[in-house]
Amino acid sequence: MSNHNVRDRQGRTPLHAAALRGDLTEAERLIAAGADPSAADHNGFTPLHLAAQEGHFGAVQLLLDAGAEVDQRNKFGNTALFVAVFNSRGRGDLISLLRERGADPMAENASGQTPFGLAHLIANFDVAQYFADLGSPE
For the whole prediction, is pTM greater than 0.70? Predict the structure, then answer.
């Protein structure tokens, strides 16, 4: 019997843990065994949210290739793109990848903020450059 759907106290699966660590070998094994790439924990975080949070480009790519829902929201209404923008520290590779895969830069979270808007609020890094094709917020 496979344990790829066992959940911990936070409702996370082994695929959540592999995504958080950026462990591509384990993530590939779990997906091949039937793990759901869009499984949400108790707070709505998916493996994609966690990989985006930690900046694991390969894991994000693997999860998207496996059919992870690109705009799935957590309980705060945040998508993986929002999480990628928030945690970007000036890196744009994940932002670009998620946008190329159809992530909605205008998806509002529970507070009414969007990834696009957040990119323009982050003053310590020029994250807004990854949304230049959308103009500036007015």
Answer: yes
